[in-house]
Amino acid sequence: MSIDTRDSFTGKFGVIAAAAGSAVGLGNIWRFPYVVGENGGGAFLLVYILFILAIGIPVMMSELIIGRRAQKNVFGAFKALAPKHPYFIIVGIMGVGAAFMILAFYSVVAGWTLEYTYLAVSNNLLTKTSSELSVFFSEFSQSTTGPVIWMVVFMFLTGAIVIGGVQKGIERYTKILMPVLFIIIVILCIKSATLDGAGKGFSFLFKPDFSKVTGKVILEALGQAFFSLSIGMGVIATYGSYIQKKENLFTTAVSVSFADTLIAVLAGVAIFPAVFAFGIDPSSGPGLVFETLPNVFNHMAGGYFFSVAFFLLLVIAALTSSVSLLEVVVAYFAEELGMKRTVATVIATIAITLFGLLAVFSSEMFNFFDKTSSNILLPLGGILISVFVGWVLGKLQVKDELSAHGGKVRMIGLLMIILKIIAPLAIGLVFLNGIGII
Ligand code: TRP
Predict the structure, then answer these.
(1) Which domains does the chain have, with CATH numbers?
(2) CA of 52 to the centre of ligand 1 (A)
(3) How confident is the model over 166-193, as pLDDT tens digits?
(4) Which atom of ligand 1 lies at the shortest distance from residue 322's CA?
(5) Under a CB-based contact definition with an 8 Å cutoff, are residues 154 and 111 in contact?
(6) CA-to-CA distance for 336 and 333, rounded, in angstroms?
(7) Which site among 126, 132, 146, 323 is 20 to 30 Å from 258 CA-CA?
(8) Which of 227, 376, 377 to mutate to test the pocket of ligand 1 (most atoms within 8 A of CB)?
(9) For 214-258, how does the pLDDT look when each residue is reduced to its tens digit (9 = 90+)?
(10) 404: left (phi over 0), alpha (psi -120 to 50) or beta
(11) How many angstroms separate the CA atoms of 36 and 220, rounded?
């Protein structure tokens, strides 16, 4: 996006809706439950929420500050804000790597969602028993033709939206559609909570068992927090550059994080009671949601309607996230490598689609992309972003940006301590501990 055409979101809800559109996606409804399931439940949830509050919100604020202050995407932003520290552009470059990896598996999962939408519409979902659903998922996800076709369709849609530059037009619809998704999830929660054996699911999700907490579990919680909030690679900085000066960045970061966390927790409430009610293994990995939820639709009045609406809205939620990821790669190609935007989008989309084939053909590659991006690249990006805002921009500039040039800023002291010391140190320790170095 060039500077001359840079416009801004009108009003508070516009910004929050756009950033929430990036944050809320498969990360909340697919990844969160499966990672909670793999990491023992309640204790993980507690650590996760702690990270959202203590690290996620400050890092999200930092990205918003960087973007709005520079009025540029993440590449131009570091150059403009700190010409003497050009190496911070590494955040953007790592971000391109992370976007590649994330989209590679994200598009595969979005492809599964498209297949499930198709199954729901053609009424082939509610006819399956619980064990048939599990068998179907594993056979489908291990096959190639179907997953490849749907993945390509999804990447095509993502690329088409970015080429058309219609992200904001789409946001107009997501403002209506995402609340609908929210309502469907709440209805699913109610249904799931009243299933026989639901209690075990609630204990799993809400009763922390601290003996389950290991270094790896803590790192997974941190990685999931970064992934779900879309932070650590400059996506949110780009949104920040569109936010009007009069908007309050603290409120924005808190509202987006709250909405994102609420949806993730509700997805957990919709899924875990059903996981136990239908005898599914909570640690069954990336297939968890796809094996579990159709059972719930199966047992509810209006299941056909709800299943179609749910999977369709999930595809849309995934699209509003994937366009934000593709945008980072396109911005890099266009602004750093001097390509035309259209050319950049076509090349980026094709390259990522080819990369995504690796994730279809090999579950090892799928897992590698999934875990490396969330647990390594995003947290490292988070360290650099908080160090940049804490030490390089410093208190005066942060204060100026947060107060919209003058006026009082509450808790600035605490924010600066978090950005300068606590966040970099905590992320660093969690990271080294999680990969077994300390
Ligand atoms: N947060 C999105 C989700 O939960 C995924 C996503 C979009 C993302 N943009 C990102 C993750 C940037 C990390 C960084 O589905």
Answers:
(1) 12-434 (1.10.4160)
(2) 14
(3) 777 777 888 889 999 999 999 999 999 9
(4) 7
(5) yes
(6) 6
(7) 323
(8) 227
(9) 999 999 999 999 999 999 999 999 889 888 888 899 999 999 999
(10) left
(11) 9
